[in-house]
Structures are given as C-alpha cells and as structure tokens.
Amino acid sequence: MMRLVKVGYVTSDEKCKTHGINLFDHSQYGGYEFCMFPIDPCTPLETQVKCDFIIHKIHIYFVEQLQLIDRNDILNRIQHFCDELKRIKIPLVDPWASVCETLYRSQVAHIISSCEFELNGIKIKSPPTFEVDSEIPDEEFIKIMAENNLNFPFMTKPRGGLLPKFRYDMSIHFSASVPGYASITDQFKQLIPCMIQKFYNHGGHLYKLYVIGDEWYISVRASVIDFDSKQLKPLFFKSCTISRKNCSSKASPKIKSSEISTHSTLDTDVIDSIVQRLKALLDFNLIGIDIIVDQSTNTYY
C-alpha cells in the first residue's frame, strides 16, 4: 500500500510551468505517492493543507509573483514564513539560510572553486570570474582580467542577489576593439553591475545536474553554440530562453530531447565526487548545478 506524502510548494506561476510541478502530482516512487499542494506564504498556514514538507523558491515568489521591490519587506516576509513553519513543525526544503548562500554568483563561484579536483583524467574547475560595478578604462579592465587568469572571449552574467537588476540577461564578448563601442565595458554597460566569466566552447550542450537527497540525475539542454576566432560583435541573449526545448535562437542549437537520465557522456565517478563535495559544504537536499565540458581540455566547468 502506497504511503501518501503531502508536498507543499512556494514559487511563482512561471516557475511552476517551467519546472512542471503539476506533473509530479500523484507521482509514485519507492512505495510513496506524492501529492502537490500550492502554499501561499501570505496566508495563515493553519488555513491551508497541512503538508509533510515544503519545497520552495520563496524569494522568486515575492519578487516575480508579487513583484515586491523593498528588500527589507521581502526578507521580513520570508523570515515570518520560516518562523511559522518552525512553529507548526513543517520542514522547509531547503532552509532559507542555505539558499541565501547561493543567491550571488560570486558566492557560488567561491563554493565551486573550493571543490576543484581531478579524477579519471578529468579536471573539475570553476571558470575564472570577477565582478564589475561600473564602467572602467580598457587598461584597468585588461589588468583585472590578467589578475584573474581571464581573457577573451568572456561572458557577462547577472550578479544575482535577492533583487538583481538583471536576472537572465547575458552577453558574450570576443574582442577589446569593436566598431561602435568606445571601450570594453561600453560593450555591456547596460548590464552593469555584472559578473565577468571566461567563455569556453562546449559543443552547444549544457548538462543540468539535479541532486535530490543522495541521488542525482542529469538532463542535457541546448546551450550557446561554439564560436570561431572570426567572431567580433558581442552576442546578447537571455539565459531563461536559450536552453529551452525548441529554442530558435541563432546562438543555440536544437537538441531533440532533454529527458532526465542518470546516463550521459559525463563520467559517473566524477559526478559522484562533485555531489559528495557539494553536499559536505552545503545544507541542501535539492541542488541544481549547470555543467559544461570544454572539449579541447575535457575539463568540467
């Protein structure tokens, strides 16, 4: 006989569609049947379904669903919700304090860099990264690049945080001198503040590693295509669309399937080690990690 598990979830409507949460309703696994229930963090929990635990992207709910813009208000609402869950003894997966550690890309880069290792001839590394807060002269920018072992081509990525100025806007830059731009940072001034990260050709494939408790799964998604040295003009795109199924972007190939599977071209021993190292550092039961493979060096980033 199946044991019923009531799973509450807090996130935005858009994220519900993206993650296909409705597909998990009444799903069965290991002798359990999981029923999914939306939870409103602004409504007293006693008036809602009593769940066994709650999964969440609670900051996304307040920022994208309710479109709140006051940082302190958002943090107070989240803390109140967490306090109420603790009072009525409903676990939150994962703890908000743990989620906070991964909101900023600089924090994530630091965590990944502490997990670097080599196994079976494969290196696991964090891409060289630094932060840009304002436009700066080319001489200074190139100096910072050298100090961080970074060169062209590079990507710009949103800095992250609770209320990021840009959440999905990214760009790739190939040269210091591009017609129509006064400087390197002029090429992406509309995206500042942002993170600068080394870009690697990776065959247009992005591996999404999902860790659920002690198990992990991999999904292959479309990613940015490989570029040659002739590319000059910057490329601008939104990360939330480029890896979707049936993406028609010129920067992304079409991949027929992104079905989740434990079988992929990635080395199983290496993935096992990545998972164990991250779980030792973070208080997480649900982790999502993007992996690309630099095909010229067989390095995982």
From TrEMBL:
<dbReference type="InterPro" id="IPR040464">
    <property type="entry name" value="InsP(3)kin_ATP-grasp"/>
</dbReference>
<dbReference type="GO" id="GO:0047325">
    <property type="term" value="F:inositol-3,4,5,6-tetrakisphosphate 1-kinase activity"/>
</dbReference>
<keyword id="KW-0808">Transferase</keyword>
<dbReference type="GO" id="GO:0052725">
    <property type="term" value="F:inositol-1,3,4-trisphosphate 6-kinase activity"/>
</dbReference>
<keyword id="KW-0479">Metal-binding</keyword>
<feature type="domain" description="Inositol 1,3,4-trisphosphate 5/6-kinase ATP-grasp">
    <location>
        <begin position="124"/>
        <end position="300"/>
    </location>
</feature>
<dbReference type="GO" id="GO:0000287">
    <property type="term" value="F:magnesium ion binding"/>
</dbReference>
<dbReference type="GO" id="GO:0005524">
    <property type="term" value="F:ATP binding"/>
</dbReference>
<dbReference type="GO" id="GO:0032957">
    <property type="term" value="P:inositol trisphosphate metabolic process"/>
</dbReference>
<dbReference type="GO" id="GO:0005737">
    <property type="term" value="C:cytoplasm"/>
</dbReference>
<dbReference type="GO" id="GO:0052726">
    <property type="term" value="F:inositol-1,3,4-trisphosphate 5-kinase activity"/>
</dbReference>
<keyword id="KW-0460">Magnesium</keyword>
<dbReference type="InterPro" id="IPR008656">
    <property type="entry name" value="Inositol_tetrakis-P_1-kinase"/>
</dbReference>
<keyword id="KW-0547">Nucleotide-binding</keyword>
<dbReference type="Pfam" id="PF05770">
    <property type="entry name" value="Ins134_P3_kin"/>
</dbReference>
<keyword id="KW-0067">ATP-binding</keyword>
<keyword id="KW-0418">Kinase</keyword>
<protein>
    <recommendedName>
        <fullName>inositol-1,3,4-trisphosphate 5/6-kinase</fullName>
        <ecNumber>2.7.1.159</ecNumber>
    </recommendedName>
</protein>
<comment type="similarity">
    <text>Belongs to the ITPK1 family.</text>
</comment>
